[in-house]
Amino acid sequence: MKEKENMDKELSSLKKKVSLGEISRRDFITRVSALGFAASAPLLLSEVAQAAPKRGGVYRMGLGGANTGDSLDPATNGDTFMINMNQGAVRNALIEVNHKGQAIPELAESLEPSADAKRWVVRLRRGVEFHSGKSLDADDVIASIEHHRGKDSTSAAKSVAESMGKMKKDGSQTVIFELDGGNADFPYLLSDYHVLIGAADSSGKIDWAKGDGTGPYSVKSFDPGVRSHLMRNPNYFKSGEGNFDEVRMTAINDTAARMNALATGQVDAIARCDLKTVALLGRKPGVKILQTSGTKHFTYPMDVREAPFNNNDVRMALKYGIDRKAFINTVLRGYGTLG
Predict the structure, then answer these.
(1) Cis omega (within 30 of 0) on the bond before 113?
(2) pTM of the model
(3) pLDDT over 70 (residue 1)
(4) Sign of dihedral through CA atoms 132, 230, 69, 191?
(5) What is the assigned CATH class of domain 54-85+218-290?
(6) Do residues 21 and 240 touch, judged by C-beta distance below 8 A?
């Protein structure tokens, strides 16, 4: 019985991996055959293919964190609505963080660090086009990052961009970064949702308001703090992604109203549910609650330079005095894990 359960889990895992492109079809058949499903391997692969996303339709999202002062300039973005729109739909970064928390190339094709991690050579993915038809090149990357730097910059990513050191292009498809000090986590800096890549003009500037990006959707209309209407980019460089014909994002800042919009069919998806009532929402037919691990965490900061926190016994007493499991079960309603 236990062996069958393990085989079923492994088979489900392989199906998921091949559907996400993490393993090839050949690898799928080979590994499924090794589990004892050689005869049915082609059928299983066919099932996965049939379950793959199909293009078409309109995707309606209800999102919070919207303001009338929102802008398509990623330097100003800081909440759910614009992050989902700008980074998730309209634009891309050089690097993205996958579901495993790994930094992987997005608009970059490769990153090559020097031995001391102070020099990074970033080669761009070829054949990527902006919605306007302009081809992605090194000038776009340099202009996008420079946008966040300088004494007059008010970008939320100013310190991140300034830590990227000197930049220079080596041909049209390569950018070289010379950092002040080695940084093995440099790829993660390039995944920042502020540091998205825009299309530079002949003067080296970017008109962010145009919304010209490389993402799966282009901007048809945008009413800050109210709604946005996006259209599928037929030339998107990621195969199998960006499948909806249209995406309509509606600003619903109130959590209860957002959950009600989903329950009554006004939208197809929402983010940030009320943890107290999300279980009730999940009981409604046709509604599925999806949970994923993120990077948000709770800490207990103490200034160890001042009394009484300069006493390690005090710090340890405070730490031991907190029932972390109770915190997860009551405050987070079970939606969390111990660090």
Answers:
(1) no
(2) 0.79
(3) no
(4) negative
(5) alpha beta
(6) yes
